[in-house]
Design goal:
The protein is α/β, with parallel strands linked by helices. The protein folds into two domains: 220 residues, Peroxisomal Thiolase, Chain A, domain 1, CATH 3.40.47.10; 132 residues, Peroxisomal Thiolase, Chain A, domain 1, CATH 3.40.47. It contains 15 helices and eleven strands. Strands 1, 2, 3, 4, 5, 6, 7, 8, 9, 10 and 11 form an eleven-stranded mixed β-sheet that branches. Helix 4 packs across helix 8 and helix 12 crosses helix 13. The longest helix has 18 residues. The chain is globular and about 70 Å long. 49% of the residues are buried.
C-alpha cells in the first residue's frame, strides 16, 4: 500500500527523481557475478541436475566459496543455504556499487528482501511424523516435540526477515528494512516499492533482492502438490507443451538502487536507469495473461522506443501462463525476447530481480546476449530499453522498464 500511495503521488505530477542501478550481485547455476553470467548466457550454457531430487529437474547452485563474502564461520553455520546464498549475493551487490564496508552509506541504505519462507528442519519433521504414529495422545506428543526439538525463536520454517537480519549483521546495512513473501509478485513489489520510494524522495539508496535454494525437498514437495515441477527430460521454457512446468533454480540476486543525485555525489557509475515497475493480477488462463500484459505495456507506451526495445522474459514454462506470454510477444513482433528461465531455472521470488540485473548488464553492453532458440531471434537495431516480464506461476503479472544511460 505504501508503494502504491507513493506511485499515485508521482502520477499526480509531483517531481519524479531519476533512479540508477549502481550495484549488481547475482549468483546462480551459471556461476557468480556479472561476467560469469554474461559469458554463460552468450554461450547458451545450461546447468541442470536430474539426480539429486529425481525425478525432478533443478538448476543447482554453482560451486561457491562463501568465505569471500561471509568470512566468519559462525555466521555461516547459523544460516541455512538460502540465507547464505542471499547474504552472499547482497555482498556482491554492495561490492559492485562501491559501498561495501562504508558505514556512512550503509547506515543510510534501506533494504527490501523478497524470499519464501525458509527451509524446514526435515530431520525434526520426519521424527515427529514417525513418533506420532506410535503416540497415544498425538496432540500432546506434537506440542511437546515442537517445544523441545526446534531451535529457539524459530517455528517449523524460517521467515525472510532472517535473511534481512543476516545481511544487516554481516554487511552492516542498517537503514530501514522490509521483507516480502508471496511468490513472484513479492520480487516485483520489492523492486517497485524501492523504486517508488527513491523517486518520491523518501529514500536515497536501497539494497533490494532475494534468494532461493532449489535443492530443497520440502519446497519441491509443495510445488508438486499442484504439479508445477517438470520431471525427466529438460526442454527450453518455450518448448514444454508436452511437459509443462518449471525447473526450480537456486539463485541469489540483489540490486543497489539510488537516486541520480546521490550516485553522482559519491562518484558512482550506473549500469542502467530503472524507469518504472508495474504489476497487477490476471486469471490463470492464456487469454487473460495475454490481455493483461498488453494492458501493462500500454501503460508504459509513452516511454517506449519501439525500434530499440527488447524483452527479458521471466517465463516459467507452465503451459497456460507461458502460452499467454508467448501470444503477447507474437502480437508484438518488434519486441525481440530472451527467456532466462531456460538457463538459470525459475527462482520464484528473486526471478524478477535477477532479470532486472541481466537487463541492466545487456543495456550497459548495448546488446542482448546471443540467441539459442528459434523464438528468440537476433536484434538488428541498437538496444536502449528492456522490458522485464514476470508472469507468476499462480498469481501476479509484472512489467519493468529499464533503459540505458547515454
Amino acid at each position: 500500500m505504501q508503494g502504491e500511495r507513493i506511485q499515485q503521488r508521482v502520477q499526480r505530477g509531483q517531481t519524479q527523481r531519476e533512479v540508477w542501478i549502481t550495484g549488481i550481485g547475482i549468483l546462480s547455476s551459471l556461476g557468480e557475478g556479472m561476467d560469469a553470467h554474461w559469458q554463460a548466457l552468450e554461450a547458451g550454457k545450461i546447468n541442470i541436475d536430474r539426480v539429486a531430487v529425481a525425478p525432478y529437474v533443478i538448476h543447482p547452485l554453482a560451486p561457491t566459496n562463501f568465505d569471500t563474502q561471509l568470512p566468519r564461520k559462525g555466521d555461516q553455520r547459523q544460516m541455512e543455504p538460502w540465507q547464505r546464498i542471499g547474504t552472499y549475493a547482497a555482498g556482491l551487490a554492495l561490492d559492485s556499487a562501491g559501498i561495501k564496508g562504508n558505514p556512512d552509506v550503509l547506515g543510510r541504505t534501506d533494504m527490501i528482501v523478497a524470499a519464501a519462507g525458509g527451509e524446514r528442519d526435515l530431520a525434526v519433521d520426519g521424527a515427529i511424523l514417525t513418533g506420532m504414529r506410535r503416540a497415544n495422545d498425538k496432540a500432546h506428543f506434537l506440542n511437546e516435540r515442537l517445544m523441545n526439538d526446534l531451535r529457539p525463536t524459530l517455528f517449523l520454517a524460517q521467515l525472510p526477515n532472517l535473511l534481512a537480519g543476516n545481511i544487516s549483521i554481516v554487511h552492516g546495512v542498517t537503514g530501514s528494512s522490509r521483507t516480502f513473501m508471496g511468490e513472484e509478485p513479492a520480487g516485483v513489489d520489492a523492486v517497485r516499492i524501492a523504486l517508488a520510494r527513491i523517486q518520491s524522495g523518501q529514500s536515497e539508496i536501497a539494497l533490494v533482492g532475494g534468494a532461493q535454494n532449489a535443492e530443497r525437498k520440502d519446497i519441491l514437495l509443495i510445488y508438486e502438490f499442484r504439479g508445477f515441477s517438470i520431471r525427466g527430460e529438460f526442454a527450453p521454457v518455450w518448448d514444454r507443451a508436452g511437459q509443462p512446468g518449471f525447473a526450480l533454480g537456486s539463485m541469489g540476486a540483489f540490486l543497489v538502487l539510488e537516486s541520480r543525485d546521490h550516485a553522482v555525489a559519491r562518484g558512482a557509475r550506473p549500469f542502467a536507469r530503472l524507469v518504472r515497475v508495474i504489476n497487477t493480477r490476471a486469471a490463470r488462463n492464456t487469454a487473460d495473461v495475454t490481455s493483461t500484459l498488453a494492458g501493462l505495456k500500454e501503460q508504459l507506451a509513452p516511454a517506449l522506443r519501439p525500434l530499440s526495445t527488447a524483452v527479458i522474459s521471466g517465463a516459467t514454462g507452465l503451459a497456460v501462463v507461458t502460452d499467454g506470454e508467448r501470444a503477447f510477444l507474437e502480437a508484438h513482433p518488434e519486441l525481440v525476447v530472451r527467456a532466462t528461465g531456460t538457463h538459470i531455472g525459475h527462482g520464484v521470488e528473486p526471478q524478477f530481480v535477477i532479470n532486472i540485473a541481466l537487463a541492466a548488464l545487456a543495456l550497459q553492453r548495448g546488446r542482448l546476449f546471443a540467441s539459442h532458440h528459434p523464438f528468440e531471434r537476433e536484434m538488428n537495431n541498437a538496444l536502449t530499453q528492456l522490458l522485464v516480464t514476470s508472469v507468476g506461476h499462480w498469481r501476479g503479472v509484472g512489467l519493468g522498464l529499464v533503459e540505458s544511460i547515454p
